[in-house]
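The freezer alarm interrupted the setup, so I double-checked each line after restarting. Inputs confirmed:
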Amino acid sequence: MNGFIEKLNACAKKNRSMLCVGLDPALERLPAGIPRSAKGVLEFNLAIIEATQKHVCAYKPNAAFYESLGAAGHRVLKATIDAVPEHIPVILDAKRGDIGNTARQYAISAFEKYGADAVTLSPYLGGDSLEPFLQYSDRGIIILCRTSNPGGADFQNLTLKNGKPLYMEVARRCKEWNKKWGNVAVVVGATAPKELARVRKVIGDQMPVLLPGIGAQGGDAEAALKAGLGSTPASVVVNASRGVIFASDKSDYAQAAARAADLLRKSLNRIRKSLQ
Amino acid sequence: MNGFIEKLNACAKKNRSMLCVGLDPALERLPAGIPRSAKGVLEFNLAIIEATQKHVCAYKPNAAFYESLGAAGHRVLKATIDAVPEHIPVILDAKRGDIGNTARQYAISAFEKYGADAVTLSPYLGGDSLEPFLQYSDRGIIILCRTSNPGGADFQNLTLKNGKPLYMEVARRCKEWNKKWGNVAVVVGATAPKELARVRKVIGDQMPVLLPGIGAQGGDAEAALKAGLGSTPASVVVNASRGVIFASDKSDYAQAAARAADLLRKSLNRIRKSLQ
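Predicted 3D structure, all chains:
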């Protein structure tokens, strides 16, 4: 088993958690007393990581929230990733996708500069755009399959000539790309449980599914777990961002985030148990 | 006509040029005497811009080549964009695509922090992922339709139930998204002239097509222009990166880039004339 997938499963097992906390620190939602600046974002992230680390199987900073801070955001993202304890994998949510020559630069950025354990990628440019990432055999390559947003259906659910939707062709290719290094995972939104069930059948019972879309986006965790659970501790990695990190907008924000993360962790575990 | 499209056409007309120079300064290809560092990249970019600015209709820095430099790369990208004369549009080649809440952060980064005139985006996440960008009515939103890389066909050329390939559905939606602000353009690779001809029919004769894939990628400029030309000065914007900026690996690199850009500009104009 590949380095990232192994680390993810180990952390899910150790912390008895399917929960990934999304570190998406929108400036305007930072709690009272935290400066609305790059420095404030770092202070906030460090407190959130410190408070929630026993309750997660991974952290997922989304690059957009750091890029929008300018050059300082870059340093904050690096410092955030560095602050995550070694046994917890970090998924850099970047959704990159470019031609081979350029993809290689993005891979250097994600894996060598930031030191992320895994990165999310868009499949629109096809196999050769993913290859420079796949070559990092110890890292995770998490490919967008069926996203959680309303527009996710616009193209991803279009029916192909063979009668199957586009996202199923992406899932089929993900299984292929996984053969060499075993380092591929997929993104399917909790808002699309029917699609998730079909994807799980294609990818087998071990490939992790990163599942955004519960909480603010309205996805139903129970329906999604029923559709998506496989056989490994981290077969479904449930991402929660806003619902955890902004659980309180007051000075108790870190404790509130810890409580929210722990509640969600337990609630997911209860659902899992009820399905077994 | 929208601010970006207007600026692009005006610059194409003023410089009699369909050429966009891609500022993709891979460290290992910097000419002799230029330090292989962020500082060297900026020195290189400034010299390239100074030397080629009379021959282009736009510049297109690709974010990947700056991100891979770390935090310093961010400052270099900003300084590069700032160094482009006001009348020449800057296309930030970022190929971003994320859910609305996150896309808004990427839009802030591209348009407000970097001050780019236009940005390239991936359509995989659908309409609502593009909306935060489209709302910048004076900027350009350049959507990947049929990319120039070999893997471009993997998903983009899949035939849908209606008998049309996926990229044609993307083109159709681009035309729709363009209705509100007239700020949409598409990417079609020079390596796919048949596809380009079909896309041009769908998008009408004014929407700019950003055309990568000539030069290092082997696309045929004549076939592509025949397939893609519309009625406006910048109906096809031909991108060249490596073939221009790395025309010489010696200290004459800036003059060599100017010569390469001017030759390419003239060659494209000759082809255009021969097709009229």
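Quick read of the result. The two ends of chain A are 24 Å apart (CA to CA).
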